[in-house]
Amino acid sequence: MPADPDQPALRSDIARLDQKIDGVEKRLGAKIDKVAIEVVKINARMETVALRSDLHRLETVVTEKLESFAARMEALWRESAVLPQSHAARITSLEDSRRD
């Protein structure tokens, strides 16, 4: 650029400014690329957190179902252990009442 601001710019001045602008554009483009990469990484982390949350909820549901199933199976097992004894007692009682 000419030392005097009132003087028109020369072609060499304009060429020098074009080079500076090109350099700024390249640096800015590189920074934008870095930011885009970080955004992609953050999105991936967010998806991972969401998947972990979904997996935790699924684990909770499965655990609750298994506990419910185990409790029901235990109740059925207890009933089946008591039934033969009470059944035998009823038969004995019926047989005794017929003998009388």
Question: Helices and strands in order, then pairings?
Answer:
Layout: H1 11-99
Structural write-up:
With 100 residues, the chain is mainly alpha-helical. The chain has one helix spanning 11-99. The mean pLDDT is 88.
Secondary-structure-derived class: mainly alpha
Distance between the termini: 131 Å
Strands, total number:
0
- Taking all Cα atoms into account, the compactness measure Rg is 42 Å
Task: Give the mean pLDDT.
Answer: 88
How large is the count of helical segments? 1
Order of helices and strands: H
Any idea what the shape is?
A: rod-shaped
Approximate helicity band: over 70%
Main sheet overview: none
Model regions low in confidence, pLDDT < 50 over at least 5 residues:
none
**Strand fraction band?**
under 5%
Descriptive tags:
mainly alpha, 1 helix, 100 residues, rod-shaped, 0% strand
Q: What's the gist of this structure?
A:
The chain is an all-alpha fold.
